[in-house]
Amino acid sequence: MASKIALRALPALVCLIFVTYLPRNTVARVLLQQATNSSLALGGPASEGIQGYLLVIDGETQGQVTVLDLASGSVNDTLQLADSYASGFTTSSGRYAIFLQYDGNLTSVYDSNYEIGFDQGAWSIEQTATPGLSDFALDVTSPSNFATLGPITAIFFDEEGRACIIDERQLGNASYSPTFIKSDRQHGFVAPLSEDFFAIGYVNQSAINDEEVALAQGVQVYNTDGTVVYNRSRTACPELHGTATNGKDALFACNGSVLVISYTAPDNFTHKSIPLPLNVRAYEVIGSGKFSTFFGVSYGAPPDYLSIGIHFFDPAAGEARLVVNATTEGEVINAVLDPAGDLLAVLTAGENGTLITLNPRTGAEMRRVTGVLSGDLSTAFDTSDDVWPAVQVGLGRLFVMIPKKAAVEEYHQDTLEVLRTFNVGGAPSSAVVLGPIKYWDNFAQH
Predict the structure, then answer these.
(1) Which residues of 353-373 are buried (b: 16+ CB within 10 A; e: fewer)?
(2) What angle do CA 384, 337, 310 make, to 5 degrees?
(3) Less Cβ around it within 10 Å: N or C end of the chain?
């Protein structure tokens, strides 16, 4: 039987909004060297050729991030962000990690200073400066959700009811200020449809309590001037929670359906809904600009919110298909799409932790391995514990965070063989991968 999941409500906070940007020091250009197959203090041999960083977020010490150099396997740095729960994600290029600190009212940027190039028939990766926290930061109330499309990152700030549009190509420019689009105060979501149009949740403010940060009931499309250019879907997504975009379609998770906002250049929009079975909702939507299809992490109705599994969505066909069934596989802990487009990685609670990879175009299972949370499941995963395990993917690797072991295990994406164990300490709960995440295969990182 599917197990029970507790969905945490985020608190409401109030703060003024401004952008902080201080001068940056520059360092001479340094070619990143390939690692040797040496013994590591953190355990296990180096993975030869892996060039990148794994930024591990601790689930107990709020704001603590351990930076692992994947070439050597050593700890490169330990960051202390705001005293707040933090979620992190990678920008499209793989250069920047952005940390949303909801309680701390802060959005921080970590710059790996990687530059990826192609010259005279060969790929190269260089570091132009020492990696570290960027001088760019946003002191904005309650950053909650994000979506990326190409160089554009869109972040929604609940209490302010604002979407922030960041062009990562400008993050090295000391005079750069991102664009803000005002919508409605809500637990909101924003999805770029291009560099000019953004689908944002809509709430009828007159119908809710002034104290409430409500879920949206639909979606409107805005241009960068903040003008609504499409509003026919403003009531088409009750209890909106989750979004993903590929630039042609933006999908929003609703109660009982998935809303599809479709865009055709230069300025044409339509919408439709993909129905879900009775009492099933997608709590999260997963997709990227590489594919026309999407995935959703699905749950049952309140108050139990039983884990249903992973749904596969095909907007063109109007199809929603269950491809990972929590009844047989165990509760879905999390799922994440490989930036290179090779797979969707799914971590479930069944069989002492099962790691499953799916074909992102078809939803078909590719590989699986069981026992990844090791031994007695109750010692590795406890549904009443605030710190849960998680999987992250990038650079041809899958990384499984196991808080009860204070460790991160690295798997090869093609074989699901354990390559290394990083004993990072604390309670690792999530991670961000930086480096040539879209182009890792060009660097022979196998």
Answers:
(1) bbbbbbebeebeebebbeebb
(2) 55
(3) N
pTM for the whole thing?
0.87
At 177-202, the pLDDT tens digits run 999 999 988 999 999 999 999 999 99
Counting every residue written for the chain, the total comes to 446
Instruction: Report how far residue 234's alpha carbon sits from residue 220's, in angstroms, rounded to the nearest whole number.
Output: 6
What pairing do the DSSP bridges indicate for beta strands 390-394 and 18-21?
unpaired
Distance, C-alpha 290 to centroid of its chain: 16
For domain 18-443, give its CATH number from 3.30.450.40, 1.20.1530.20, 2.130.10.10, 3.90.1150.10.
2.130.10.10
Domain coordinates in residue numbering, the chain: 18-443
The residue to which tokens 């994947």 are assigned: 70
What is the distance, to the nearest Å, from the Cα of residue 138 to the centroid of all Cα atoms in its chain? 19
Residues of the chain with pLDDT under 50: 1-46, 444-446
DSSP label of 237 = -
> Would you state the structure tokens that stand for residue 184, as one six-digit string?
């409605």
